[in-house]
Every structure is written in structure tokens, then in C-alpha cells.
Amino acid sequence: MAEEEKASGPLAWLKTAKDKFRAFAYGTEPQRAERPRVGLALAGGFARGIAHIGVIRVLREAGIPIDCVAGTSVGALIGAAFCGGASLEEMEKIGSVTTFADFGRWTPSWLGLATNQRMEKFLARFTPAKTFEELQTPLAIATTDIIDGVSVYYSHGEIVPALRASCAYPGLFVPIQYENRTLVDGFLTAPVPIEGVLLMGADLVIAVYLESGNLEQPRTFTDILSRSFNIIQRHSDLAWRTQADIIIEPDVKQFVWDDFTKTPDMVAAGEIAALHALPQIRAALRGEKRDSTPGSDLTPASLK
Fold first, then answer.
1. How many other C-beta atoms can be found within 10 angstroms of the C-beta atom of residue 183?
2. Which residues contact 151 (CB under 8 A, 6 or more apart)?
3. Which of 57, 134, 53 minimizes the C-alpha distance to 94?
4. What's the CA angle centered on 239, arms 111 and 258, to 5 degrees?
5. Residue burial 224-249, b: 16+ Cβ < 10 Å; e: rest
6. pLDDT tens-digit readout, 140-157
7. How far is residue 123's CA from residue 160's CA, in Å, rounded to a whole number?
8. Which are the contacts of 298, defined by CB distance < 8 A and separation ≥ 6?
9. Is the pLDDT of residue 272 over 60?
10. What pLDDT, in 10s, does the model give residues 107-125?
11. 3-state secondary structure of 206
12. Number of helices followed by number of strands (H, E) in the chain
């Protein structure tokens, strides 16, 4: 009873007035008892995924909370590194000297041209965490069951098998056999893994999409393969867009799939796009815009 009187007593209006003045003068708001749980969904895009680092840097510097992360392909790698406690500076440094040989090895077979078994050692350069449970921030990794044609999300157990599967680009990397499933790159069914953060309880979804450009003339088999899938995705990306609250799209179309030497430029592209999105994000955190309920049309998927 005493606590209720204190909260609603004659001086209660003064505290409210001070809070409002502080918000007006400094552009901040009094801390809310509850705020939306923020989920960050990171798309795939090979080397272009380095732009995710720039996005995360701006969000952190702006004080935007990141309560959970879901990643597809390189988005899963960046997500695992970030959630595992890696510094963004170290991630950028490693990214700038990365080559295909760091995570892939050419071993042509009927199922693919290479294996990504080296991904385990590559991840260890960012974080010592080996299981999802060891991560500092909850993470879900999107994969595709190539037999059933559905998304399968992993958020428990070993990180590496799920990460390798999420990065197993069809035709380039051999599929991963894991838990009685044949798994390939998550981008086939979850180009931007919105469902992953929704399944982890996100109320506000920030999606980062990396659109690739078309080369004037393909150089290699992988260029042909990549362009083919990009064309398919360009015509079928409406579903995830309706589930996201905020969409950040760094301008990385000019970078090719293995352009790791352009790391500073790609990080900068991520920073610029995130800075443009900050007013919208802050408004969403204040509850000023909520046009629809993301996930109301959530398609069947399993969170392992």
C-alpha cells in the first residue's frame, strides 16, 4: 500500500515532467519497463556478408539492443562470431585477408566441387565457442533440407555442423549429412532468416539483405551458378519482406562473391545503410510504427 501511494503521490507528476523534459532536451526517452525483443536476421552473400559487420557496428554504437540473431550462410558465420563474443575489429581484420582456401577445399565429386570442412577451424579464429549454449547471444542458423525442401533452424548443440550446412552452396559445396538430414545452404528456403528470430521470440525484426549485382560477363562456373540463384531469389523475396519490421540493404551490388580484399568498402556500405535506418529503428522501439504482426503467416520450420 505504501509503495502504491509513493508511486501515485503528489510528487509523481514531477518525476514524469522531468523525464519528459529530459527526452525533449537530449533526444532520449525514460527507460521503459519493457521493450520489444529485437531480433537481427542476417542474409547470405559470400564475401558481401562482410557488410553485416558495418551494420552491427552502427547498431551497437547507437545503443540498439540485439537480443537474438539468425543467420543464413555467411550471415550465420558473422552471427556465430558476433554471438560468440568476437570483436568487430577482429572480424573485419580477418575478413580482409580471407581466401577461399580458409573455408573451402576443391574435391570434385558427384555432389559438389568442394568441401567446406575447413569451416570448423575458420570459426575457431573468431570464437572458442563450440556449442550454441556457449554463445553470449542466442543464435539460430538456417539450413535447407534438400530432400524435403524445407528450412531447418538450429539453435542448440554443436555450431559447426549447422554452420557448414548453412554455407553449403548447392553445386559448389558437398551437402552436409546431419541428424538424418541432407542439408545445404539456408538461402534456398530462408534467404533472410526472419523465421529464426521469430522462433526465438523476437518482437521487432531487423533484416539485413545483401543484393548482388550482375557481372557484365561471368568469369567462372560459380559466377553462373550464383547469378542463376540470384535471379530466382529476386523474383521470390516477397514473403520475408512482409515479415520484417525494418529492412537494411547495404549497397554491395558492385562486389563479387569472393571480393574479400574490398572488406573496408563493404563494411562502410553496411554502416551507411544502418545509419539511414536508425530513425526508423528508434521509432519502432518506441512503438510508433507497427503496421502488422510479423510471423502471422509463419511457414512450417523446425528449430532444432
1. 23
2. 142, 143, 144, 145, 186, 189, 190, 193, 195, 299, 301
3. 53
4. 45
5. ebbbebbeebeeeeeebeebbbbbbb
6. 999 999 999 999 999 999
7. 8
8. 195, 198, 243
9. yes
10. 888 888 898 999 999 999 9
11. strand
12. 11, 12
Measured from the Cβ of residue 24, the count of other Cβ atoms closer than 10 Å reads 10
Tell me how far apart the alpha carbons of residues 44 and 46 are, in angstroms, rounded to a whole number: 6
CB-based contact 223:185 (threshold 8 Å): no
Q: What is the secondary structure of 71-110 as a DSSP string?
A: EETHHHHHHHHHHTT--HHHHHHHHHT--GGGT-EEEEET
CA distances from 199 to 42, 77, 141, 178, 243 (A): 15, 19, 12, 21, 12
pTM for the whole thing? 0.80
CA-CA distance, 211 to 52, in Å (whole number)? 13
Residue 256, pLDDT > 50, answer yes
How far is the C-alpha of 134 from the C-alpha of 132, rounded, in Å? 5
- Number of residues written out for the chain: 304
**Positions marked active-site:** 73, 185
- 221's grid cell: 562456373
Mean pLDDT of the chain: 82
What is d(CA 148, CA 181) in angstroms, rounded to the nearest whole number? 9
Residue appearing with cell numbers 531480433:
39
Query: What is the 3-class SS of 207-225, one letter each residue?
Result: EECCCCCCCCCCCCHHHHH
